[in-house]
Amino acid sequence: MVTLEDVAKQAGVSLATASRVLNGSTRQVGAALRARVEQAADELGYRANIAAQTLARGASNVIGIVVHDLTDPYFAALADGAMRAAATEGLLVMVGTTHRDPEQEIAYVATLHAQRVRAVLLVGSRVADPAVTGRLRDELARYQAGGGRAACVGQDLLGVDTVAPANRQGAAELARALAGLGHTKFAVLAGPPHLVTAADRCAGFAGALGELGLPAPQVIHGPFDRDGGYAAAQQVGDATCVFAVNDVMAVGALAACRERGIRVPEDVSVAGFDDIVTLRDHVPALTTVRLPLKDMGARALVLALNEDDPVVVEQVAGEVVLRESVRRMT
Amino acid sequence: MVTLEDVAKQAGVSLATASRVLNGSTRQVGAALRARVEQAADELGYRANIAAQTLARGASNVIGIVVHDLTDPYFAALADGAMRAAATEGLLVMVGTTHRDPEQEIAYVATLHAQRVRAVLLVGSRVADPAVTGRLRDELARYQAGGGRAACVGQDLLGVDTVAPANRQGAAELARALAGLGHTKFAVLAGPPHLVTAADRCAGFAGALGELGLPAPQVIHGPFDRDGGYAAAQQVGDATCVFAVNDVMAVGALAACRERGIRVPEDVSVAGFDDIVTLRDHVPALTTVRLPLKDMGARALVLALNEDDPVVVEQVAGEVVLRESVRRMT
DNA sequence: GCAGACTTGGAAACCGCTTTCCGGGAGGTC
DNA sequence: GACCTCCCGGAAAGCGGTTTCCAAGTCTGC
């Protein structure tokens, strides 16, 4: 590969001068030399070695994003928001996918630390297991001790800056809205019991029903994805309204209903959570709680880069969106 | 940050020994020293500086993937396939999104070159503009001249290893299948004229119709995304069957039909291309041409890493999948 | 015309790690 | 017991940049 030294030699200048011309510096270089250097660099096809720059400067221009699954539109939207924000700051992005394995997540933080990335964004739900959360916290603390910055989208469990969707409130509002339509018998496709996001949404929903004096919903646990929703929907009893704790599960539930000849919303109403853009053309249109996912991703990046000391936790409110997958009870 | 020197000092050994213990080497280190070093590293919370390793070793363990848009499930699936393959090789992934700007794509290749990534994967359709393709080729050539490896998913336009979906054949087969159902009047939502993937699919489709002695389809150009399909669908004339050159556009077209009270498939049949997994629950289920996207992404990574000299171009066949969005004409 | 303030180019130290090259000690062979 | 290997630890030379520190001009202003 072409090095700066090659360029300097070809241009007949010192390494220092070549560096100042090509790779940004506070110091000026005369027009004549500057032109010579630029021409030499171009002729040789020079590209600065960023590993060397990172080493010399002691600071890298890449950030790391850790998500569970890129093919899940929820994570894709969040990651996209963060990446757009990163691009405006001139930062590059390393993306890691854990496929929901917490060990992978810890390993990724270690790797990104080793890369000396400027910041790490952890996107996605934490599991409630204190042992694994503790190890993740330790790994993050190590990274931060060395000057690394971190932020998280999800629950405030890691002691870092956090963009936290208001899952409980959102689910509670949704419950009130659905109750307002006259529903009284609910089921919740609740996802995995140890997943905090899922548990919060479920709890918020059930709590609001309790406050309204309505009977507790039937709670059905299962995986947090489309197939989990599909499977859980089979177990729904006599509820008139089913709340899936995320949109992807709701879509699975709708598919299950369709296959079994259960009409939505005539026979049963279905609601989700997140308002995934890709699903906007789904039939029937999904009632859900809208989260500004792209903004949240971008916001998390800003928080991570922010120098301020105190850990900040930003609550992001969701907005109930009623669509045709639910009906008014008469 | 903790450096290897700190560890070596704390363990009372030389830098060389510490390096050999912690960061893999062909050479053995005695058990006693090895233990001392490991303990010191653990106490201090040492993480190797990968920038320094990359510099010293002259080889990095990251690969770059350039896609147009991560929130498009087509790219997400491809990227996910490549990332899984990368993970099995112990490689890290940098993802760049161009948002369909060819200049961005060139800039990303330059940046990844500067990062000295082990390989670059270019995912997504090329534009037909020879000027911009030429500049991208130049940039890639520069990178490869320095020992970089590259591969591409899409058209074989860059002179690098390529995984090429058989767009023409797939579209032709689809056309034959639809004609076999009795359709004779077709429209094609053809995407942008300069996008090679779109053009190939359109040409393959039209060509097959011609061979069957059917009239040429109405061709409507527009953006390559959901909204493009939505808008183009408004201009369809008296066709009984509409082919959108990708699934996302087809979904937009279906939405347009729905809004205008046009029933699918009763009033008009609609087909897409790609078989996006996220859309499997769409109603009506979309007739399409299935592409093994994850495999293609993984395959591209393997090709890129492959040392062999001759440029290889792998055709990937699509498989026509007839679903309820098309009907048999009687 | 000259002191002093700015500019600008270059030499060299340094960033954190890998790896070659040396050297000393242990173990094996005859 | 001498000689040869083999094994393993350490010193030091890079890897490709950045940046500090000097020194030599170049401009000012009076």
TrEMBL record, chains A, B:
Name of the molecule in the record: LacI family transcriptional regulator
InterPro entries per record: HTH_LacI, LacI/GalR-like_sensor, Lambda_DNA-bd_dom_sf, Peripla_BP_I
Coiled-coil residue spans: none
Organism domain of life: Bacteria
Protease among keywords: no
GO molecular function, one term: transcription cis-regulatory region binding
Record has Membrane as a keyword: no
Keyword annotations: DNA-binding, Transcription, Transcription regulation
Gene3D superfamilies associated with the record: 3.40.50.2300, lambda repressor-like DNA-binding domains
Start and end residues of each HTH lacI-type domain: 2-57
